[in-house]
Amino acid sequence: MNVQDEVRWERLKPAEFIARRDACPIVYLPMGLCEPHGHVAPFGLDTIKAEWLCLEAARRFGGVVAPTQSWHIHECGYHAPWLREVMDGINPLLAALPAHLVLETLLYQLRAFRNGGFKAAVVISGHNGAQDDLRMVARHFSAAFPFEHFVASDPELVKGLFHGDHAGRYEISQLLVVSGDLIALERSGRVATDALGRFAQNPDAAEATVEEGRAILDASLEHIGQVVKAFHLAAEPADFVPMAALVPVWQAIDADRAHWCTADPLPLATPSL
Ligand SMILES: [Zn+2]
């Protein structure tokens, strides 16, 4: 990759950062975590796929990719019963955070984006299940400090075209394209013999193909492209938001914890993906 193609905030120097931002004031935030993805795939599948989508979107449509948020919400909300179901008592070797930490972090990440001169953020979560709360945080932030945003989990990008899953044909196909060297499809049969059991692997994992992965990723990027095109990207400069200004915003979000979708476990928390 040559210097002009660099889109990652942490790898840009000020001149190139400002040039990219001023040409297209959109920032992308990839979100994922380490969680079990069967015997065939690495723990960070969600992170890797979200990062790839954001990098590719910034290269195609313009903008800058913010540092990846590679810790995410798990063990609460719908994820709690899901974990019991797919792990069968086995240690999931999970790198997760409680909801309030991730949600408050996102609030301050949005502040950093607005203060950094961006007019809109695209937040792509490779981890499904917490996005309603992520959207709720973005709504609270934008109500206090106007800022365009789009927040989605990757299966939402291809709704109606593909059905999202966990460590199954859908997800594994994507990683076959993004980083095929990280996939070991020949290990799919270990669910029957390995002491780790299923390790959250979906029964159709071995059906993953590069062709399907490409189709899913293309459709996802097309969706992001439509979102980017629809942003208004206000020309007027925004006031600097001090950290202290977010304290009441967070307090309002926190006061409504009972309604978070990641609240501890919801009565209707049935995993669909
Ligand atoms: Zn996943």
From TrEMBL:
GO terms for MF: hydrolase activity, acting on carbon-nitrogen (but not peptide) bonds, in linear amides; metal ion binding
Highest taxon in the source lineage: Bacteria
Cofactor(s) of this protein: Zn(2+)
Gene3D superfamilies referenced in this protein's UniProt entry, alphabetically: Creatininase
Entry keyword Metal-binding: yes
Keyword Hydrolase annotated: yes
InterPro entries reported in the protein's UniProt record: Creatininase-like_sf, Creatininase/forma_Hydrolase
Swiss-Prot/TrEMBL keywords: Hydrolase, Metal-binding, Zinc
GO process terms (BP): riboflavin biosynthetic process
UniProt similarity note: Belongs to the creatininase superfamily.
UniProt protein name: Creatininase
Source organism (scientific name): Beijerinckia indica subsp. indica (strain ATCC 9039 / DSM 1715 / NCIMB 8712)
